[in-house]
Amino acid sequence: MRFAALALLQTTRLTLRxxxxxxxxxxxxxxxxxxxxxxxxxxxxxxxxxxDPDAPFLMPRGTEPHVWxxxxxxxxxxxxxxxxxxxxDGLAELGYRLxxxxxxxxxxxxxxxxxxxxxxxxxxxxxxxSTTMVVNxxxxxxxxxxxxxxTRTVPFTSGDPIxxxxxxDVWYELTRAAWQAGRGH
Length: 185
Known about the structure:
CATH architecture: 3-Layer(aba) Sandwich
Mean pLDDT: 85
CATH topology: Aminopeptidase
Radius of gyration: 16 Å
Largest sheet: 8 strands, mixed
CATH class: Alpha Beta
Number of strands: 8
Strand content: 25-35%
Shape: globular
Order of helices and strands: EEHHEEEHEHEEH
Helix content: 10-25%
CATH superfamily: Gcn5-related N-acetyltransferase (GNAT)
Low-confidence stretches: none
C-alpha cells in the first residue's frame, strides 16, 4: 500500500495540518503538563532532551511523517496534535494529545473523526485502532463517539506502574466497512 500524502484537514472548529519543526515548542509544552501526561507516564513532565528514546508513547518534534498539528480554525490557537500511525499496509493507530485548556469541548472527537475519514478515504486503511488505559474515561469516550468499538482489555506490561494501570489497557477499533455503514453508505 502506498501511503497518501498528509493533507490539510478542516473541521468546523479545527484546522489539522501536517506537523512541522515550528510546532515543536507547542508539543514540548504539552509534555510538560502533568495532567496531559497523567495516563502516559503517571503525570511526570517530560523534557525531550532528557527523555527516554524508547518511551512507550509518541513525543512529536514536528518532523514525524504521520502527525498533524491541530489549531483552532478561528484564531489559530494551538489545540494539540493527532496522529494516524501506519502499523502495516491496511492498519493504522490513532493517537491524539490536547492541551488541557481544550479538554471537554468535543475537539478531540472532532479532530479524530476527521483523521479517521482521511484514513479510510485517502490513505486506504481497512482498519484503525487506538488504545488507552482502562481508567482514562475521557479518551475512551472519544473513541466511542467516533464509532470505535472496544475489542479487548490487556494487562499492564510496561515498566513503571501508573496509578490505575493495574486495570490494564483497552483497545478499540473501527473498520472501513463499519465506518461506511455508520455514515449511511
